[in-house]
Amino acid sequence: MKKMIITGFSGFVSRHFLNYLVENNLEYDVLGLDVNPPKFELSEYEPALKMDFKIANLLDKEVVEDIIKEYRPDYILHLASFSSVAYSWQHPADCFTNNTNIFLNVTEALRNNNLLECRVLSVGSSEEYGNVTKEQLPLREDMQLFPVSPYAVARVAQENMAKVLADSFDMNIMLTRSFNHMGPFQDERFVIPSFIRRILDIRDAGKTAGEIETGDTTIIRDFVDVRDVVRAYYKLLTEGKSGEVYNICRGQGVALSEVIDIIADIVGVEVSTRVNPDFVRPGDNQIIIGSYDKIQADTGWESEIPLRQTLEDMVAHMSK
Questions:
Q1: What are 52's strand-pairing partners?
Q2: Which residue of 5, 178, 262, 300 has the lowest C-beta tally within 10 Å?
Q3: 3-182+224-251+289-304: which CATH number, 3.30.230.10, 3.40.50.720, 3.40.50.2000, 1.20.120.1200?
Protein backbone atom coordinates (compact mmCIF):
# COMPACT_ATOMS: atom_id res chain seq x y z
CA MET A 1 0.00 0.00 0.00
CA LYS A 2 1.42 3.38 -1.03
CA LYS A 3 2.13 5.88 1.74
CA MET A 4 0.81 9.44 1.67
CA ILE A 5 1.46 12.35 4.02
CA ILE A 6 -1.11 15.15 4.15
CA THR A 7 0.11 18.34 5.83
CA GLY A 8 -2.53 20.78 7.01
CA PHE A 9 -4.54 17.65 7.69
CA SER A 10 -7.14 19.26 9.94
CA GLY A 11 -8.38 21.74 7.34
CA PHE A 12 -11.49 21.34 5.22
CA VAL A 13 -9.60 20.59 1.99
CA SER A 14 -7.93 17.55 3.56
CA ARG A 15 -11.29 16.23 4.73
CA HIS A 16 -12.69 16.41 1.20
CA PHE A 17 -9.53 14.79 -0.16
CA LEU A 18 -10.03 11.84 2.19
CA ASN A 19 -13.65 11.62 1.06
CA TYR A 20 -12.45 11.48 -2.54
CA LEU A 21 -10.06 8.61 -1.80
CA VAL A 22 -12.75 6.59 -0.06
CA GLU A 23 -15.49 7.28 -2.62
CA ASN A 24 -13.18 6.13 -5.42
CA ASN A 25 -11.86 3.05 -3.59
CA LEU A 26 -8.31 4.40 -3.63
CA GLU A 27 -6.35 2.58 -0.95
CA TYR A 28 -3.53 4.42 0.81
CA ASP A 29 -1.67 4.43 4.08
CA VAL A 30 -2.30 8.04 5.17
CA LEU A 31 -0.40 10.02 7.79
CA GLY A 32 -1.96 13.37 8.69
CA LEU A 33 0.16 16.19 10.14
CA ASP A 34 -1.17 19.38 11.71
CA VAL A 35 -0.65 21.65 14.71
CA ASN A 36 -4.34 21.21 15.55
CA PRO A 37 -6.34 18.00 15.93
CA PRO A 38 -8.88 17.25 13.18
CA LYS A 39 -12.56 18.04 13.78
CA PHE A 40 -13.49 14.60 12.49
CA GLU A 41 -12.77 11.05 13.60
CA LEU A 42 -10.17 9.03 11.72
CA SER A 43 -12.48 6.04 12.14
CA GLU A 44 -14.82 7.65 9.58
CA TYR A 45 -12.31 6.61 6.91
CA GLU A 46 -11.27 3.22 8.25
CA PRO A 47 -10.92 0.48 7.10
CA ALA A 48 -11.08 1.99 3.59
CA LEU A 49 -7.86 3.87 4.41
CA LYS A 50 -5.10 3.03 6.84
CA MET A 51 -5.03 6.19 8.95
CA ASP A 52 -2.74 7.83 11.46
CA PHE A 53 -2.42 11.39 12.73
CA LYS A 54 0.30 13.29 14.54
CA ILE A 55 0.29 16.71 16.13
CA ALA A 56 3.38 18.27 14.59
CA ASN A 57 4.88 21.74 14.37
CA LEU A 58 6.23 21.64 10.83
CA LEU A 59 8.30 24.76 11.48
CA ASP A 60 10.50 22.51 13.63
CA LYS A 61 13.03 21.12 11.16
CA GLU A 62 14.05 18.19 13.37
CA VAL A 63 10.43 17.11 13.87
CA VAL A 64 9.85 17.08 10.12
CA GLU A 65 13.11 15.24 9.50
CA ASP A 66 12.22 12.51 11.99
CA ILE A 67 8.73 12.01 10.54
CA ILE A 68 9.95 11.79 6.94
CA LYS A 69 12.81 9.46 7.88
CA GLU A 70 10.52 7.05 9.72
CA TYR A 71 7.49 7.12 7.42
CA ARG A 72 9.20 7.37 3.99
CA PRO A 73 6.20 8.62 1.99
CA ASP A 74 5.47 7.97 -1.67
CA TYR A 75 3.26 11.08 -1.91
CA ILE A 76 2.91 14.35 -0.01
CA LEU A 77 -0.13 16.57 -0.35
CA HIS A 78 1.21 19.82 1.08
CA LEU A 79 -1.77 21.84 2.34
CA ALA A 80 -0.26 23.35 5.51
CA SER A 81 -0.33 27.14 5.33
CA PHE A 82 -1.79 30.36 6.61
CA SER A 83 -4.34 30.67 3.81
CA SER A 84 -6.09 33.94 4.73
CA VAL A 85 -5.11 37.03 2.74
CA ALA A 86 -6.64 39.21 5.48
CA TYR A 87 -4.47 37.49 8.12
CA SER A 88 -1.37 38.11 6.01
CA TRP A 89 -1.98 41.86 6.08
CA GLN A 90 -2.20 41.75 9.87
CA HIS A 91 0.76 39.36 10.34
CA PRO A 92 2.96 39.56 7.22
CA ALA A 93 6.11 38.13 8.82
CA ASP A 94 4.30 35.17 10.37
CA CYS A 95 2.55 34.41 7.09
CA PHE A 96 5.76 34.50 5.06
CA THR A 97 7.80 32.47 7.54
CA ASN A 98 5.11 29.84 8.00
CA ASN A 99 4.25 29.34 4.34
CA THR A 100 7.83 29.19 3.07
CA ASN A 101 9.74 27.51 5.90
CA ILE A 102 7.32 24.60 6.29
CA PHE A 103 7.68 23.82 2.60
CA LEU A 104 11.47 24.04 2.86
CA ASN A 105 11.53 21.77 5.90
CA VAL A 106 9.46 19.12 4.13
CA THR A 107 11.47 19.17 0.91
CA GLU A 108 14.83 19.25 2.71
CA ALA A 109 13.80 16.20 4.73
CA LEU A 110 12.98 14.37 1.51
CA ARG A 111 16.38 15.26 0.02
CA ASN A 112 18.26 14.32 3.19
CA ASN A 113 16.61 10.90 3.17
CA ASN A 114 17.10 10.30 -0.56
CA LEU A 115 13.35 10.29 -1.23
CA LEU A 116 13.55 12.24 -4.50
CA GLU A 117 10.95 9.95 -6.12
CA CYS A 118 8.30 11.03 -3.62
CA ARG A 119 5.65 13.00 -5.52
CA VAL A 120 4.86 16.31 -3.81
CA LEU A 121 1.98 18.65 -4.60
CA SER A 122 2.87 22.22 -3.68
CA VAL A 123 -0.37 24.20 -3.41
CA GLY A 124 -0.24 27.84 -4.46
CA SER A 125 -2.83 30.51 -5.14
CA SER A 126 -4.40 32.63 -7.86
CA GLU A 127 -3.45 35.57 -5.63
CA GLU A 128 0.03 35.23 -7.11
CA TYR A 129 -1.16 36.86 -10.36
CA GLY A 130 -1.91 40.17 -8.64
CA ASN A 131 -3.97 42.97 -10.16
CA VAL A 132 -4.64 42.41 -13.84
CA THR A 133 -6.69 44.06 -16.57
CA LYS A 134 -9.67 42.50 -18.28
CA GLU A 135 -7.57 42.26 -21.43
CA GLN A 136 -5.24 39.80 -19.62
CA LEU A 137 -8.03 37.38 -18.78
CA PRO A 138 -8.30 34.47 -18.51
CA LEU A 139 -5.16 34.08 -16.40
CA ARG A 140 -2.72 31.49 -17.73
CA GLU A 141 0.22 29.81 -16.08
CA ASP A 142 2.85 31.45 -18.33
CA MET A 143 1.85 35.00 -17.31
CA GLN A 144 4.14 37.20 -15.25
CA LEU A 145 3.26 37.34 -11.55
CA PHE A 146 2.62 40.58 -9.64
CA PRO A 147 1.70 39.61 -6.06
CA VAL A 148 0.04 42.45 -4.13
CA SER A 149 -0.40 40.95 -0.64
CA PRO A 150 1.98 39.38 1.88
CA TYR A 151 0.16 36.08 1.39
CA ALA A 152 0.68 36.20 -2.37
CA VAL A 153 4.36 37.07 -1.98
CA ALA A 154 4.84 34.02 0.25
CA ARG A 155 3.09 31.79 -2.27
CA VAL A 156 5.29 33.06 -5.11
CA ALA A 157 8.39 32.38 -3.01
CA GLN A 158 7.22 28.83 -2.30
CA GLU A 159 6.48 28.27 -5.99
CA ASN A 160 9.86 29.58 -7.11
CA MET A 161 11.67 27.34 -4.63
CA ALA A 162 9.61 24.34 -5.75
CA LYS A 163 10.67 24.96 -9.36
CA VAL A 164 14.34 25.19 -8.32
CA LEU A 165 14.10 21.90 -6.43
CA ALA A 166 12.38 20.17 -9.33
CA ASP A 167 14.81 21.51 -11.94
CA SER A 168 18.07 21.29 -10.01
CA PHE A 169 17.57 18.27 -7.74
CA ASP A 170 15.18 16.20 -9.88
CA MET A 171 12.52 16.26 -7.19
CA ASN A 172 9.00 15.28 -8.22
CA ILE A 173 7.11 18.46 -7.34
CA MET A 174 3.90 19.52 -9.05
CA LEU A 175 2.55 23.00 -8.40
CA THR A 176 -0.88 24.59 -8.37
CA ARG A 177 -2.28 28.06 -8.44
CA SER A 178 -5.58 27.24 -6.84
CA PHE A 179 -8.38 29.75 -7.30
CA ASN A 180 -10.96 30.54 -4.60
CA HIS A 181 -12.42 27.23 -3.50
CA MET A 182 -15.29 26.62 -1.14
CA GLY A 183 -17.61 23.93 0.12
CA PRO A 184 -19.01 22.22 3.22
CA PHE A 185 -16.80 22.25 6.34
CA GLN A 186 -15.09 25.53 5.35
CA ASP A 187 -14.23 27.81 8.27
CA GLU A 188 -16.59 30.76 8.74
CA ARG A 189 -13.61 33.15 8.78
CA PHE A 190 -13.61 32.89 4.99
CA VAL A 191 -15.77 35.16 2.92
CA ILE A 192 -18.45 32.85 1.48
CA PRO A 193 -19.13 30.88 4.70
CA SER A 194 -19.26 34.20 6.56
CA PHE A 195 -21.92 35.46 4.13
CA ILE A 196 -23.92 32.26 4.57
CA ARG A 197 -23.74 32.39 8.37
CA ARG A 198 -25.00 35.96 8.55
CA ILE A 199 -27.78 35.34 6.03
CA LEU A 200 -28.86 32.21 7.93
CA ASP A 201 -28.90 34.32 11.10
CA ILE A 202 -31.45 36.62 9.45
CA ARG A 203 -33.68 33.67 8.63
CA ASP A 204 -33.20 32.00 12.02
CA ALA A 205 -34.22 35.23 13.74
CA GLY A 206 -37.60 34.87 12.01
CA LYS A 207 -37.01 37.74 9.60
CA THR A 208 -37.68 37.79 5.87
CA ALA A 209 -35.18 40.59 5.15
CA GLY A 210 -32.02 42.01 6.65
CA GLU A 211 -28.71 43.78 6.09
CA ILE A 212 -25.16 42.46 6.33
CA GLU A 213 -21.86 44.30 6.43
CA THR A 214 -19.37 43.41 3.71
CA GLY A 215 -16.20 44.52 2.05
CA ASP A 216 -16.13 45.40 -1.64
CA THR A 217 -18.76 43.17 -3.26
CA THR A 218 -17.99 44.36 -6.79
CA ILE A 219 -14.82 42.25 -6.95
CA ILE A 220 -15.05 39.24 -9.23
CA ARG A 221 -13.65 35.83 -8.38
CA ASP A 222 -13.39 32.45 -10.08
CA PHE A 223 -14.98 30.20 -7.45
CA VAL A 224 -14.51 26.44 -7.69
CA ASP A 225 -16.02 23.69 -5.56
CA VAL A 226 -13.53 22.09 -3.14
CA ARG A 227 -14.70 18.64 -4.30
CA ASP A 228 -13.55 19.53 -7.82
CA VAL A 229 -10.32 20.87 -6.33
CA VAL A 230 -9.40 17.67 -4.51
CA ARG A 231 -10.11 15.66 -7.64
CA ALA A 232 -7.61 17.91 -9.43
CA TYR A 233 -5.10 17.48 -6.60
CA TYR A 234 -5.26 13.70 -6.85
CA LYS A 235 -4.81 13.80 -10.61
CA LEU A 236 -1.77 16.06 -10.27
CA LEU A 237 -0.25 13.93 -7.52
CA THR A 238 -0.50 10.86 -9.71
CA GLU A 239 -0.35 12.23 -13.28
CA GLY A 240 0.99 15.80 -13.16
CA LYS A 241 4.34 16.77 -14.67
CA SER A 242 7.13 17.63 -12.24
CA GLY A 243 8.09 21.31 -12.16
CA GLU A 244 4.88 22.38 -13.90
CA VAL A 245 2.32 24.85 -12.52
CA TYR A 246 -1.41 24.25 -12.97
CA ASN A 247 -4.37 26.58 -12.48
CA ILE A 248 -7.27 25.00 -10.58
CA CYS A 249 -10.35 27.03 -11.48
CA ARG A 250 -13.81 26.99 -13.07
CA GLY A 251 -12.91 29.44 -15.81
CA GLN A 252 -15.87 31.69 -14.92
CA GLY A 253 -16.04 34.85 -12.85
CA VAL A 254 -18.78 35.98 -10.50
CA ALA A 255 -19.08 39.14 -8.40
CA LEU A 256 -19.43 38.74 -4.64
CA SER A 257 -22.69 40.69 -4.86
CA GLU A 258 -24.10 37.97 -7.13
CA VAL A 259 -22.96 35.26 -4.73
CA ILE A 260 -24.82 37.03 -1.93
CA ASP A 261 -27.96 37.19 -4.09
CA ILE A 262 -27.78 33.45 -4.80
CA ILE A 263 -27.31 32.61 -1.11
CA ALA A 264 -30.23 34.86 -0.17
CA ASP A 265 -32.42 33.13 -2.76
CA ILE A 266 -31.45 29.68 -1.44
CA VAL A 267 -32.12 30.70 2.17
CA GLY A 268 -35.34 32.49 1.24
CA VAL A 269 -34.68 35.99 2.57
CA GLU A 270 -34.00 39.40 1.07
CA VAL A 271 -30.54 40.78 1.81
CA SER A 272 -29.09 44.26 1.45
CA THR A 273 -25.42 45.06 2.03
CA ARG A 274 -23.45 47.89 3.59
CA VAL A 275 -19.72 48.32 3.05
CA ASN A 276 -17.62 48.35 6.20
CA PRO A 277 -14.28 50.02 5.37
CA ASP A 278 -12.56 47.71 7.86
CA PHE A 279 -13.48 44.74 5.64
CA VAL A 280 -11.91 46.25 2.51
CA ARG A 281 -8.42 44.86 1.86
CA PRO A 282 -5.71 47.21 0.58
CA GLY A 283 -4.76 46.56 -3.04
CA ASP A 284 -7.33 43.82 -3.47
CA ASN A 285 -7.41 42.22 -6.91
CA GLN A 286 -10.55 43.46 -8.65
CA ILE A 287 -11.06 40.56 -11.02
CA ILE A 288 -9.64 37.04 -11.14
CA ILE A 289 -10.69 34.52 -13.79
CA GLY A 290 -8.46 31.64 -14.78
CA SER A 291 -7.93 29.18 -17.59
CA TYR A 292 -7.81 25.46 -16.82
CA ASP A 293 -6.66 24.48 -20.33
CA LYS A 294 -3.29 23.22 -19.10
CA ILE A 295 -4.52 20.78 -16.44
CA GLN A 296 -7.26 19.62 -18.80
CA ALA A 297 -4.67 18.87 -21.48
CA ASP A 298 -2.37 16.97 -19.09
CA THR A 299 -4.92 15.10 -16.96
CA GLY A 300 -8.38 15.55 -18.49
CA TRP A 301 -9.62 17.48 -15.43
CA GLU A 302 -12.27 20.17 -15.54
CA SER A 303 -14.66 21.49 -12.92
CA GLU A 304 -18.03 19.75 -12.76
CA ILE A 305 -20.04 21.19 -9.86
CA PRO A 306 -22.09 24.35 -10.58
CA LEU A 307 -21.73 27.35 -8.27
CA ARG A 308 -25.34 27.21 -7.07
CA GLN A 309 -24.98 23.53 -6.15
CA THR A 310 -21.91 24.37 -4.07
CA LEU A 311 -23.79 27.12 -2.25
CA GLU A 312 -26.84 24.91 -1.69
CA ASP A 313 -24.64 22.22 -0.14
CA MET A 314 -22.91 24.78 2.08
CA VAL A 315 -26.24 26.23 3.24
CA ALA A 316 -27.54 22.73 4.01
CA HIS A 317 -24.39 21.87 5.99
CA MET A 318 -24.38 25.13 7.95
CA SER A 319 -28.12 24.86 8.69
CA LYS A 320 -27.60 21.70 10.76
A1: 31
A2: 300
A3: 3.40.50.720
Q: Which helix (H) or strand (E) holds 248?
A: strand 245-248
Q: Judge contact between 245 and 85, C-beta under 8 A.
A: no
Contacts of 36 (CB under 8 A, 6+ apart): 10, 55
Look at the domain 191-219+253-286+314-318 and name its fold: UDP-galactose 4-epimerase; domain 1 (3.90.25)
Non-local CB neighbours of 307 within 8 Å, separated by 6+ positions? 223, 225, 250, 252, 254, 259, 262
Contact 250, 303 (CB under 8 A): yes
- SS3 for 93-140 is HHHHHHHHHHHHHHHHHHHHCCCCCCEEEEEEEHHHHECCCHHHCCEC
Global pTM?
Answer: 0.95
Residues in the chain with pLDDT < 50?
A: none
Q: How many CA atoms lie within 13 A of 285 on its CB side?
A: 30
pLDDT digits (tens, 9 = 90+) for 26-81: 999 999 999 999 999 999 999 999 999 999 999 999 999 999 999 999 999 999 99
Contact 96, 150 (CB under 8 A): yes
- Residue 221: per-residue pLDDT: 95
Nearest to 299 by CA among 240, 245, 219: 240
